[in-house]
Amino acid sequence: MRKPATRKRLVPYWLLLPGILWLLVFFAAPLVYQASTSLQTGSLEEGFKVTWHVQTYWDALTEYYPQFLRSVLYAASATLGCLLLGYPLAYVIAFKAGRWRNVLMILVIAPFFTSFLIRTLAWKTILSDSGTVVSVLNSLHVLDVTSWLGLTEGERVLATPLAVVCGLTYNFLPFMILPLYTSLERIDGRLHEAAGDLYARPFTTFRKVTFPLSMPGVVAGTLLTFIPAAGDYINAELLGSADQKMVGNVIQSQFLRVLDYPTAAALSFILMAAILAMVTVYIRKSGTEDLV
Amino acid sequence: MSSTTPTASRGPLTALSSWLRRNLVVLAGLATLAYLLLPNLVVLVFSFNKPNGRFNYAWQRFSTDAWTDPCGVAGLCGSLTLSLKIAIWATIGATVLGTMIAFALARYRFRARSAVSSLIFLPMAMPEVVMAASLATLFLNMGVDFGFWTILIAHIMFCLSFVVTAVKARVMSMDPRLEQAAQDLYASPVQTFLRVTLPIAAPGIAAGALLSFALSFDDFIITNFNAGSTVTFPMFVWGSAQRGTPVQINVIGTAMFAIAVLCVLVGQLAGSRRKRS
Fold it and tell me: What tens digit of pLDDT does each residue of B227-266 get?
């Protein structure tokens, strides 16, 4: 009788083995390898000196801190933009759509299926200097204000921070809408009625009932947009110029063009550490540790 | 009637402003939807453009040339088939491995369970560029030739976690009494699994597989680091952004959108009909 019992106890391990091995070899091991690479310099023999280690990280930070700051700033703006734009749509789908709910969900998910690079390139057409958007914004003097704020330059939107943030916001919007919708949809409609019965005005109901109950979706959505946005280099490359380079662009060019692997490794480690730190603080602050 | 009294002009204005206030959320939501769909519309419109020169950014004149000859650009359809091939294999690999992990996590208590859970969670919480660069460093140091296999390995790696999450959610929400009932009716463990467990888990597995396919087919960042000189469809589009974008790319983009919407609609119709009968 002992044999089958042991065999049964081993079942979960056999189920896990291939997949976990895959992740250990192709996800975890590369990260360790990356760490050792960031300690190396030109030749392998010199690579493991502690002084060099600090130097590569320090050099990377001092040289590329503008790109780091920009990544955090752009990603944070895009996340805020996604929240402001995504919340009303998620709210409408959850509470107001009625029989249109499925159609709206399809319309939110469908853009996913056109290659996102093609869609990002489409923004180049939309925001082009001679395009409708720019001329309308220009005649409304919006661009004067945004130029003054440093978001755009002169009479153009392409190759400015605004274009990059607009692209980032667009690209990660579904990642905000879907978790928001999931948590809004779970809210019991009777709570709204109860708030109304207690003479809460619609906005008060939203502030005191709906929004707090949707916090899990807000936290999940902000993480799902902020993390990929901070590492993205596609929007900065396609919609920005040399002045809008983010840290992802630096890692990409260090790795694939300059072939300076230690710097690329150090940069990606700093990015990873910074994001992990920010995410940890954020999850603690929002008090939803059990979510993830 | 010629002179508008203040009360008369205030009437419709107040009505309008109160209507606006009542429907503010709906209008904001629809504006977001327009923002989401605008690029798709532009891709559709510009797939009928006849551009002047290499770049398809300004409207010139109407033409269906690109639609009648979608493979007319060197390398485009080759990259598309390669992407499809990789996406299919990556989906199969990630779905099989991910479903096994999901069952282990949802059904068994074992040591290292929390360590496994965090190993599953981490790839989803890491910027793609970090994963991409570190995997490429590993391949580089092992002297592996970049190409089809390195792309496939990378794609299975990052799709795995999404499959686990989708399947685990489904299996966790399933009533364990259903399996007990099957066992009480003398079903063998294999029969129970095939006749009860698997059909109930199927929507989760399908969702994971669909997500893997979409993620793999559309992935650029990880592929960019691990492809070498192999060109997948997103790599082709990326390259074309510098060289000049052929109209055919808009055709493919529009076709992908249309096929996806059709598939979803058919799925919905089939689902609602099944529910009714």
Answer: 999 999 999 999 988 888 889 999 999 999 898 888 888 8
Residues of B in contact with A234 (CB under 8 A): 220-221, 238
**A24 contacts B137? CB cut-off 8 A:** no
Q: What is the DSSP string of B139-158?
A: HHHHTPPPSHHHHHHHHHHH
Contact (Cβ atoms closer than 8 angstroms) between residue B29 and residue A89: yes
Tokens of B30: 């629809």
pLDDT digits (tens, 9 = 90+) for A57-98: 888 999 999 999 999 999 999 999 999 999 999 999 999 888
Separation between Cα atoms, residue A187 and residue A73, nearest integer Å: 33
Residue B29 structure tokens: 């939501």
Q: How far lies B107's CA from each of B102, B129, B169, in Å?
A: 8, 34, 12
Cβ B233–A265 below 8 Å, yes or no?
Answer: no
CB A227, CB A272: distance < 8 Å = no
Taking the CA of residue B51 as centre, how many other CA atoms within 13 Å lie in the half-sphere pointing to its CB?
18
Rounded to whole angstroms, the Cα distance separating B119 from B104 reads 14
d(CA A123, CA A159) in angstroms, rounded, equals: 12
Q: What are phi and psi of B48, to 5 degrees?
A: -105, 15
| CA gap A51, A60 in Å, rounded | 14
Read off the pLDDT of residues B167-220 as tens digits, 9 standing for 90 and up: 999 998 888 888 888 888 988 888 888 988 899 999 999 999 999 999 999 999
Q: How is residue B251 written in tokens? A: 């055709």
- Measured CA distances, A279 to A97, A171, A248, A274 (Å): 33, 20, 18, 9
Q: List chain A residues with CB under 8 Å of B219.
A: none
Contact in structure between A268 and B129 (CB atoms under 8 Å): yes
The shortest C-alpha distance from A178 to chain B (Å) reads 13
